[in-house]
Design brief:
about 110 residues; alpha+beta; globular; 5-stranded antiparallel β-sheet
Amino acid sequence: MALTSKDLPMGGQDYGPLRDPARRAGCLAHAGAPGATVLGARQVDWAGRPGVLLVLPAGEPGRLRVLVVSLDCAADRGEVLADTRSAAESAAESADAEPWARTGQRSVSSSQS
């Protein structure tokens, strides 16, 4: 299953282990998005690995950046499991729209926490 608009946690704030603002800021810096504003967050399973999906502005009007980071992400550790950018209007057009972001054969589903 590819990432679709249904997977975007716009406005949601399920940060999981990144709920601490200082740790989240360190993780974002480590992931190459220092000072980014998080528009939404959700714990996910990404290719069989637990992580946190973070929706960020991409720096251009109408575009989003979606990061999936490992649960141990902090200023000095962690992995970026996925990093993609896409147009916001493509994601919001329809719940049945074609997947707008693909990075291989990975799947996204909500964690059962």
